[in-house]
Amino acid sequence: MFSFKVLLLILACLWISDAATDTLGQGDKLNSSDHLVSKSGNVTLGFYKQDYGETWGDKGSGYYLAMWYTQDTLNHPIWLANRDDPIADDSGVLTIDNTGLKITHAGGNPILLFSLQSTAANNIKLVLQDSGNLVLQDEDSNRLENRTLWQSFDYPTDTFLPGMKLGVSRGRNLSLTSWLTQSIPAPGAFTLEWNPVAGGLVVRLKERVLWTAGESFENILPLDPLNMNYNFTNVSNVDEQYLYYTLLIEEYTPEDRRKNARLVLLDDGSLELESRLLLFTSGTCAGDITENGCVRWEGPKCRSNGDKYEKISIRTTHKNSINNTLMGNTSLSKNDCKDICWKDCGCLGVNDQYVLGCQFLSGPYVQGGLDATSYQVIIRHRSRSKNWIWILISIAMALMIAIVLGILFYLRRRRRIRMEGKIPRTKN
Question: What Pfam families would the database entry show (predicted)?
């Protein structure tokens, strides 16, 4: 009986070890019920279902090949293989065959991650590393080191991991792109890039620079100095120019930081550290604000430096006050709509209640009321110089009116005195 229990225990351990493999070999398959787990168990790769919370692409959810921290309770993916091409059901299979590394699924063409057609390789393996890097390697016995054919670090999504690069490396431009919304992984309106010329670490809203971290990261919100365990390094040479960071493990380094270190570009353009600390809040940068790394918004001539969006409850007063031409475009988020409106001189604001698609304000409105709707309205700013001009004009007009009234009063009084005969008329 004892021997039988020992045998069962050994078999269970072998099954767990096999189930928790970190490697996929040529000819192997990873389906929707399988996972790759890194050697330390910190990172997991597998298929998962993402509920959109909205109807996007005629669907309410999609399946993705994703990577996540195993012990992360939020389960937010740190990398997605097919964010642009979600699978409709749980039929996805990751495999390596003679054509390359790809995802096959029912009812659609394979999603090719790397092609082997022009690559001479003998022993190919896909390895999930503890760093969160998924690496396709050629393990040729004639070489001292394995040759990297493809790696997920070269295709970042919205998450910056320790050891990952941002910038230009091996001719590839590496940057983060936010999700379209909080629940839709498709590329959104914001990007995070490394650009020393533009101010180091830069957040963009489409083409517009929204915020810079500064050369010494002085514009990042202050952190607890006792827990600042990040070492940022800038590499610059003829072929490469990029930023990476490493995690310094010390005695008081929090446990979640040891296992879940990451910097995430949120769908609203904010930067979040370890799912709990905001390093930058995009809502603080609007209009002519230039403090803490914010960059003044540029736009057409109809936009002044001080113009900015404000959330206001309004009621339209004309049938043509609303523009619904982009209402059904589910590839546009609220931030895309605000960017489009800013560039259109005829646009006054954006409906704040729609997650996807744009409803623009383009005509008369009044604030408040029982049936008011929340809008992001562009508030025009009048510069101080213009204010002073109007003040001076008002003072001058007031003085002119006072002088005219004084003259009229004097003439009226003089006429009354003459009528009473106190001042005789001059004889010619």
Answer: B_lectin (PF01453)
